[in-house]
Amino acid sequence: MGFRLVTLNLNGIRSAAAKGFVEWAEQARADCMGVQEVKAQHADVAGRFERVADMDGHFHFAQKKGYSGVGVYTRHAPSDVIVGLGEPEFDDEGRYVEVRFDKPGRPLSIISCYFPSGSSGEERQAAKFRFLEVIYPHLLSLRGKREFILVGDVNIAHKEIDLKNWKGNRKNSGFLPEERAWMTRLLEEAGMVDVFRRLNDKEEQYTWWSNRGQAWAKNVGWRLDYHLATPGVAAHAKSEHIYLDKRFSDHAPLSIDYDFEL
Description:
It is built from eight helices and 15 strands. Helix content is 25%, strand content 27%. By secondary structure, the chain is an alpha+beta fold. A hairpin with a 7-residue loop joins strand 7 and strand 8 (108-114).
């Protein structure tokens, strides 16, 4: 049977739904789906997007309307749901929801997380660096207690292979040396696994395209969406797929199949 986990930055759930997101989800056969940039409040989701494709949604909404927000849809009843990181600055922005599927001797979490973008200017870049400082020890601590897969829009392209125009973006948010070094530290020192890259080392494997110019048509993309997993669960990853046939967002869905069951 196995376990299919999808991550998708929706760029607004209402907008994505108008473009066919729900119909796509119904045939994607995911066991869990992490979504980011829901850009909605509880009242907008209630009665409309609480359940998608026979999966129940668990959300962390931002205080500000039409901004950020993450969710995990799941076919399986969780043992616990943790909303937020416990850091008010970022919890107000709706960036983290952790859904636990614990069994005796096997604690396991699926996390949907939306890392800040720093592209609007220095103030937001500073917030992004603060977020990286907060989430690193959080993930390190979690790793000491349980297996987990964090899915989401990390807003960092790790290596030159992970964006088309790497030479022109070395001073831009998303490909700054400090951001890339943080990701390297997460993978090498903290021992997390970039699951997609373990399965696929090819070039031009992107999940986001700017709405400017002809980025989509020319495949001038970035790989910003990840499955970041502890080694024990990462070892079960079998296949990956970036869905490009239809667009619901400026991001593409990234699916990975694992050979375990919840």
